[in-house]
Amino acid sequence: QVQLVESGGGLVQAGGSLRLSCEASGRTFSNYAMGWFRQAPGKEREFVGGITWKSNTLYVDSVKGRFTISRDSAKNTVYLQMHSLKPEDTAVYYCAARATIAIASTPAEYKYWGQGTQVTVSS
What is the DSSP letter of 92? Predict the structure, then answer.
């Protein structure tokens, strides 16, 4: 069993930055691929990006060049650094884990989820 806890969300003005953290506990975190997803009101949960256990990353086009995912296996923590935030980035952000080496872009591929953290970008 893996437990995930996100933190770092908040209210920020357009153009600002936030860093989300996702701390994992319960199992050998370093063997898991991690994903970040977001869900805006009335919309489906969408893939933002992910990172493999070797720190290879993948991003959705809308965040490329603005968001960066990293992981610190010693701290069992994955980060989502967000720059140049836009109002359309407003959503609840979730981290997720899957016990495989590959990143997946669909929520159903992830077994473990955090509780989510709200990110609100004002215009």
Answer: E
Contact 121, 86 (CB under 8 A): yes
State both tokens at 98. Answer: 């899957």
- Beta strands in 14-90, from DSSP E residues, in sequence order: 18-25, 33-39, 46-51, 57-59, 67-72, 77-82
Query: Tens of pLDDT along 68-112?
Result: 999 998 899 999 999 999 999 999 999 999 989 899 999 999 999
Largest Cα–Cα distance of the chain, in whole Å?
Answer: 41
Residue 35 token pair: 């994903």
Instruction: Report the b/e string of 78-107 with b at 16+ CB within 10 A.
Output: bbbebeebeeebbbbbbbbbbeeeebbeeb
